[in-house]
Design a protein that fits this description.
two-stranded antiparallel ribbon; 81 residues; 5% strand; single chain
């Protein structure tokens, strides 16, 4: 549970940073592509946001698959013989 909260906090934090960099008042003065602080023309926080989304999606997919496997195992265990 603690790890899930850390991931959610990371998604929120990087999302806010990415939003402020791309759409905030600072966006008018963003450095040109290739300038220090950018990766392929985008601020690094944009990539962090998508990385956290990928981690959160993978974790949710794994938890769902684990629950399905657990439910199948319980059905098999409690099935009448």
């Amino acid at each position: 549970m603690k790890r899930a909260l850390q991931v959610i906090l990371g998604v929120c934090f990087s999302g806010v940073l990415a939003y402020r960099e791309l759409f905030g008042t600072v966006a008018v003065s963003c450095p040109a592509p290739g300038a220090p602080g950018t990766v392929f023309g985008y601020p690094a926080c944009v990539y962090g946001f998508f990385m956290y989304l990928l981690v959160a999606g993978t974790a949710a997919w794994g938890l769902r698959a684990g629950r399905k496997a657990e439910a199948a195992r319980l059905r098999e265990h409690h099935a009448p013989a």
